[in-house]
């Protein structure tokens, strides 16, 4: 029986392949920009060839995940204001299996509790228009969004004078929700918590 790669090994394989593609060691040569051979001979396609080669490889890894039931979940830890949380998230280069979605759903409440606790005195903003615009909201607004979403994830930006904690609340497949490719089947809303008087940067 052949060895089945682990989640961590697939992440390392994808990182190595991404580097090979960026360096031009892997190209998808049949890529054309316009489809017109007369025009295409004058257009540089190496960037598109690198990108397409990596996307093809990543799709093959996603098929491998499905066939071998290799989870896309990684465990992250966040520490804010002396409080810490260990929580599951789907790696940005992998997909979520059905069993992964169940793990994410079961962690939603603990992520929300942590977020409410560490953002109690902070200003809250809902991002829209691909995070180019923000609207200030309050905790009841967040609670309403939480009721209609299935899973949650966290990020933070922090330095000595600034703190922003982003709560992503989503539904459907995370790999589709992150890039707004799967609406309405998959999607997410982003809530940004910042210290009073600050505006979100992420």
Notes on the protein architecture:
This protein is α+β, with helices and mostly antiparallel strands and 202 residues long. It is built from six helices and seven strands; from the N terminus they run H-H-H-E-E-H-E-E-H-E-E-H-E. The chain has a five-stranded antiparallel β-sheet. A two-stranded antiparallel sheet has the order 1-2. Strand 1 and strand 2 form a beta hairpin. It is globular, with a radius of gyration of 20 Å. It starts with 6 loop residues before the first helix and ends in an 8-residue tail after the last strand.
Short descriptors:
202 residues, 7 strands, 6 helices, alpha+beta, two-stranded antiparallel ribbon, five-stranded antiparallel sheet
Contiguous runs where pLDDT drops below 50 for at least 5 residues: 27-34
Which structural class matches the secondary elements? alpha+beta
How would you state the average pLDDT, rounded? 86
Distance between the termini: 46 Å
Order of helices and strands: HHHEEHEEHEEHE
**Contiguous helical run count:** 6
Strand tally is 7
Strand content: 25-35%
Helix and strand arrangement:
Layout: H1 7-22, H2 37-40, H3 46-68, E1 73-80, E2 83-90, H4 98-118, E3 123-128, E4 133-137, H5 139-147, E5 151-159, E6 162-171, H6 174-177, E7 187-194
Helix pairs in contact: 1-3
Question: What is the structure about, briefly put?
Answer:
This protein has 202 residues and is an alpha+beta fold. The chain contains 6 helices and 7 strands. It has a 5-stranded antiparallel beta sheet. It has a two-stranded antiparallel ribbon with strand order 1-2.
């Amino acid at each position: 029986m052949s060895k089945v790669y682990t989640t961590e090994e697939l992440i390392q394989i994808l990182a190595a392949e991404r580097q090979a593609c960026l360096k031009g060691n892997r190209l998808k040569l049949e890529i054309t920009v316009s489809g017109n051979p007369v025009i295409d001979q004058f257009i540089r396609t190496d960037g598109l060839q690198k990108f397409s080669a990596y996307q093809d490889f990543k799709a093959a890894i996603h098929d491998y995940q499905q066939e071998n039931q290799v989870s896309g979940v990684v465990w992250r830890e966040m520490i804010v204001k002396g409080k810490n949380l260990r929580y599951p998230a789907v790696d940005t280069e992998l997909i979520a299996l059905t069993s992964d979605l169940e793990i994410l759903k079961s962690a939603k409440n603990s992520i929300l509790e942590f977020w409410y606790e560490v953002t109690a005195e902070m200003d809250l903003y809902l991002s829209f228009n691909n995070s180019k615009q923000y609207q200030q909201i309050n905790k009841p607004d967040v609670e309403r969004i939480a009721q209609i979403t299935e899973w949650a994830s966290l990020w933070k930006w922090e330095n000595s004078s600034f703190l922003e904690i982003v709560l992503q609340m989503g539904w459907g497949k995370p790999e589709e929700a992150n890039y707004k490719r799967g609406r309405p089947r998959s999607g997410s809303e982003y809530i940004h918590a910042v210290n009073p008087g600050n505006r979100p940067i992420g």
